[in-house]
Structures are given as C-alpha cells and as structure tokens.
Design a protein that fits this description.
single chain, elongated, Four Helix Bundle (Hemerythrin (Met), subunit A), mainly alpha, 116 residues
Length: 116
C-alpha cells in the first residue's frame, strides 16, 4: 500500500513538473497522465474493498482524475498563450488536490495497517 502511494506521488510530481514547465509538451503530458491514471486505477482504487474508511477519499481521487483528463485535453488544445497559462494553473490546482488526497488516504489507511 505504501509503495502504491509513493509511486502515485512520484507520478503526480512528474506530471506537475511537466504541466508547470514554460511550454509543456502535450504528448509527454498525455503519456505521463495516462501512466499516472492507470497506476491509480490498478493499485489504489481497489483498496476501497480492503479499507472501507478510505472509500470517500478514493472516490474523490477518481473524480479528480476524470476532471484532470479534461484539463490535460484542454491544455493540449490551447492555442493562445493566455489560455494555455490558465489551463496550466487549473491542471496544477488539480494535481495539488490529488497530492492532498494522497496524504489523506495515507492518514486514513495508516492506523488500519498499523493495527493489522
């Protein structure tokens, strides 16, 4: 479980660095996003079955990933600099939310894991 969260954080930080770069590479951004989303779906979302207390946080993570997918697509489609900057900010905000959800998930699951 900790490895899954550590890996997700690493993916999110890489994605955040790509998104916040001066001129984000749309293809690399999309590839990193898909890798991160796939990791989350395969490694974290199934934890809801094992840790019911974590389900609300996992639901928010899943919802935020769906919104993030839209932001990635909009950033790739942005043609004007001002629009691209706005999309980058939105993308960065969602990534910050996801990192916060990772911390909340760890706090929710850690006491349970310690008891086992």
């Amino acid at each position: 479980m900790k490895n899954a969260l550590t890996t997700l954080r690493s993916h999110l930080q890489t994605l955040e660095a790509l998104a916040r770069s001066a001129h984000p590479d749309g293809a690399r951004l999309q590839t990193q996003f898909l890798l991160t989303q796939q990791h989350c779906q395969n490694q974290l979302l199934p934890l809801g079955d094992l840790y019911p207390d974590a389900q609300p946080v996992l639901t928010e993570i899943n919802r935020t990933f769906r919104l993030l997918a839209i932001d990635v697509a909009f950033l790739q489609a942005a043609r004007q600099s001002l629009t691209a900057q706005q999309r980058q900010r939105q993308l960065g905000d969602k990534l910050d939310q996801l990192l916060g959800f990772c911390a909340a998930l760890e706090q929710t699951i850690d006491p349970i894991v310690a008891e086992e």
